[in-house]
Amino acid sequence: MNNRPLALLGDGSWQMSAVDGWQGAYLTTPVPLNTGENVWILWGTVDGCQSSFHNDCTDPNNPCTQHETYLTSLDGGQSWNGPFNFYDWKFRIWTGFPGHYQPYGAGCAGTNGVPQLGWFGMPLAGSSFDIHLDNAMPSSFAMLSFGTSNTNSGSTPLPYSLAPHGAPNCSVLGALLVTVLYPTDANGHGVVTVSLPNDPSLAGFDIYDQWFCFDATANPLGITVSNAGQATIGV
Asked: Is domain 100-232 classified as CATH 2.20.130.20?
């Protein structure tokens, strides 16, 4: 109504990551979409974040007037402000059984801050997606773990605290079924591309992953950890 949303059709929530990449949630109630029908996509963000791209409107070759316009609300949709076009917003909507990625938990501080896990792309059968790492020890190594549970790793309940081993505030958040070592660059960034087999029977299967970063000066164990991620495979 009046170029503003009228009624809530469905909603969802997710734990926002500071690492650039696609972020989103399942809708708790499926929303049927019809050809030619207008729908509004809204989300509430932490401290006004996060946009896929930022544009300060000073580039004469890429003026803000060429960007998508949007409205903002500071009172839960009772009133709206705008239109604005300072940011480039990007959306994806999946139907059927989509892949989904959700960060959870928290990491522990190291020399370069708290390591942060993020992702790009979606975990779809027959496709690939990237798992990113920020704030790790620069020019070092980090280990990415994969497992099929976030409640136990073998006979060990999760989360499992590493404090008794010399890493206070650090916890194992996913099962350690497979671990692979990767280098970090001069900024403490790392990325791993995960390829999934083209098998529709994988739909709904969950994979849990977490970064373990080598950081000799961070604590007696010399290890810090990131938050973790839950990848639900889609088709």
From this structure: yes
